[in-house]
Amino acid sequence: MTKDTLYVGLDTDKKLVAVSVAEPGRSGEVRDWGTVSNTPEALGRALRRIGQDGRRLEVCYEAGPCGFGIYRRLNRMEGVSCAVVAPSLIPRRAGDRVKTNRRDARMLAKLLRAGELVAVWVPDAAHEAMRDLVRARGAAVADVGRCRQRIAAFLLRQEIGYAGKPWTKKHRAWLGGLAFDHAAQRLMFGELLVALDQAAARRDRLTEHIGELVGSWSLAWLVTALQALRGYRLVHAASLAAEIGDPRRFASPRQLMAYLGLVPSEWSTGERVLRGRLTKTGNKRARKVLIEAAWTYARPAKRAAPPAPAAIAAIAEKARHRLSRRYRQLTAKGKRPPVAICAVARESLGFIWAIARAAGPKPPNPIA
Q1: Burial of 103 (C-beta count, 10 Å sphere; 0-12/13-18/19+)
Q2: How far apart are CA 224 and CA 45, in angstroms?
Q3: Whole-prediction pTM
Q4: Which of 75, 175, 231, 330 has a CA positioned 20 to 30 A from the CA of residue 91?
Q5: What CA dihedral angle connects 128, 130, 134 and 137, to 10 degrees?
Q6: Which segments of the chain belong to CATH 3.30.420.10?
Q7: 3-state class of 346 per DSSP?
Q8: Which fold has domain 5-114?
Q9: How many CB atoms lie within 10 A of CB 201?
Q10: pLDDT below 50 — which residues of the chain?
């Protein structure tokens, strides 16, 4: 903390930004500067006025729907350093029952001055674009699931069943041949099938787009290397890389496990140690990918792993033996399969971290 620095807290929404300023020092003044429009011009003018005496500005705002555009613009300004902070890690008083944008901005300024805020990792614009594409495919997959559920619920009400495996080409042809007594039902069911086909087509198009663009991405090497592991074909590998970035930015696999919420919660005091469920903090999309991939270790391998460099292939082979054995050991001890799979997913992060270190170019500076 230096005397020539001002600490600025921003509370953002889609229209307005509340601005508060904290003077340096434990007893420095904290004042509400005002509210400005959430536009690049208005926010830039406000910060230039705050720092017009030549003092350096440290600025922060909470991660949220406004994205990282403010972060990128402010860090391009001379004399301004901006951070995006994790909302879930902001200290809050238990008895505080009043929340306004002005009070939130003031709280952010004070906590930034005290060094009590945790900044989130901010991807570059190209990485964020790829992540948007991967998330769009995830939304399309969810749309397909909802369309299928509506069709299945309607057929259940009509007491119509299918004897074979559902949602195959044969099943789709069977659905198209169903007849109903009432015109309203025929029209409604036809619309359900059209919605299903459209959602499936959108999912397939987005999958193709990922395959086309991943080769020019800065993390293409990671996507290729991850596919040596079981459960990680192109989409899963691209999804995990898009959500967590380069795993080598973590100093150890344990940090990566904690970052994704795959470590147990704990309430311990004195000699009493009590551990509970997984914390489930951090990126839930990345956790979903890890859990889905971990289920492959509960079953025998159906296909050979794609060719990979010797170092990466050795890590993947070690992961195959260890994680499969880990699942069998836990279920033999009476652990429920979902619990065993979470343990497998957590351990798989160690192999993912090792593969990234073996495959990647010069690593970034790890998080301390």
Answers
A1: middle
A2: 45
A3: 0.89
A4: 75
A5: 110
A6: 5-114
A7: helix
A8: Nucleotidyltransferase; domain 5 (3.30.420)
A9: 12
A10: none
